[in-house]
């Protein structure tokens, strides 16, 4: 005959009679569920203890390192293509010409993007920034010569600047309305407005600089340096078409640093400088804001 196991009893609160302690029988299935939950609890507790031990003595939370995808840009795509196809070429592939073509295409697109950015920076400097600076200096020099009659000095750029103590306020009315309006629209005459625009523009560049810095840290510093391309990638067990980068060879890190990170950093710093110079020399408070929005287009070119 079949003998059922003796039930175990545990205290439980009856939903029909709140506060009354009753006995509830637990079946073998309930015990199995409790056992699995207990095991999960023990595992989570042990993981928490391990994490706490890792962060013990530092006063900081433990740092979790996880695989992260590259940024969604031409540079991120080019880096992934160069690394993956270089591994295939070294390990052997049925389509070597296709792999080489993809690497060359990636390098070409990076060089094209860098060249386009350099071209635009050159013309921003020559066609926008330089004429705007000369124009606003000339207009303000004329204003200073009018407001400080016969009491001006020349700047290093050859424009008039008034000597303090000899300003004639009544001469401002000798200017026509258009000239008065233009002088009042000089950005430096509204310093807090100009500072706020320049601050926002610098923050925009700083966000891009942070992305470049994080990419450099992840690829050049945190990613181990391996001697051979055999140790570079590892297939993901969960996702079939996903490849994890376990390390980079010295040649790969050099190519990424020289052809990707350094040009992006130089272009961004030059763009930030030329943008601030152009915005400061822009005549018209509304145009300062619009030009700041236009400059963001160059930052997003990647």
Residue share in β-strands: 5-15%
Helix percent reads: 55-70%
For the termini, the CA-CA separation is 78 Å
Largest beta-sheet details: 2 strands, antiparallel
Shape: elongated
- Quaternary state reads single chain
Detailed description of the structure:
The protein is mainly α and 302 residues long. The protein has a domain at 74-130 and 186-300. 61% of the residues lie in helices and 8% in strands. It contains seven helices and six strands. Strands 1-2 form a two-stranded antiparallel sheet. The protein has a two-stranded antiparallel ribbon with strand order 3-4. The protein has a two-stranded antiparallel ribbon with strand order 5-6. A hairpin with a 5-residue loop joins strand 3 and strand 4. Helix 2 (74-91) packs antiparallel against helix 3 (96-147) and helix 5 runs parallel beside helix 7. The longest helix has 52 residues, at 96-147. The relative contact order is 0.10. Residues 1-48 have low confidence and may be disordered.
Q: What does the secondary structure layout of this molecule look like, with pairings?
A:
Elements: E1 8-13, E2 21-26, H1 28-55, H2 74-91, H3 96-147, E3 152-154, E4 160-162, H4 177-184, H5 191-222, E5 233-235, E6 243-245, H6 250-281, H7 285-299
Antiparallel strand pairs: 1-2, 3-4, 5-6
Helix pairs in contact: 2-3, 3-6, 5-6, 5-7, 6-7
């Amino acid at each position: 005959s079949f003998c059922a196991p003796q039930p175990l009893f545990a205290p439980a609160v009856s939903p029909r009679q709140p506060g009354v302690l009753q006995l509830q029988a637990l079946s073998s299935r309930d015990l199995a569920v409790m056992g699995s939950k207990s095991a999960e609890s023990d595992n989570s507790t042990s993981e928490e203890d391990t994490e706490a031990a890792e962060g013990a003595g530092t006063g900081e939370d433990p740092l979790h390192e996880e695989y992260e995808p590259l940024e969604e840009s031409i540079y991120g795509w080019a880096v992934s293509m160069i690394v993956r196809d270089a591994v295939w070429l070294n390990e052997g592939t049925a389509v070597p010409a296709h792999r080489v073509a993809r690497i060359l295409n990636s390098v070409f697109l990076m060089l094209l993007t860098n060249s386009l950015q350099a071209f635009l920076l050159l013309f921003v400097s020559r066609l926008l920034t330089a004429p705007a600076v000369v124009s606003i200096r000339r207009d303000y020099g004329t204003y200073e010569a009018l407001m400080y009659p016969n009491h001006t000095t020349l700047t290093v750029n050859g424009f008039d600047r008034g000597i303090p103590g000899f300003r004639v306020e009544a001469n401002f009315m000798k200017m026509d309305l258009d000239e008065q309006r233009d002088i009042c629209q000089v950005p430096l005459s509204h310093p807090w407005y100009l500072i706020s625009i320049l601050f926002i523009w610098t923050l925009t560049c700083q966000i891009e600089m942070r992305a470049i810095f994080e990419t450099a840290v992840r690829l050049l510093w945190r990613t181990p340096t391996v001697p051979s391309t055999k140790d570079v990638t590892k297939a993901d067990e969960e996702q079939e078409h996903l490849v994890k980068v376990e390390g980079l060879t010295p040649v790969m890190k050099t190519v990424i640093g020289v052809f990707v990170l350094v040009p992006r950093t130089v272009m961004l710093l030059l763009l930030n400088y030329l943008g601030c110079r152009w915005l400061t020399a822009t005549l018209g408070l509304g145009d300062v804001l619009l030009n700041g929005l236009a400059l963001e287009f160059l930052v997003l070119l990647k």
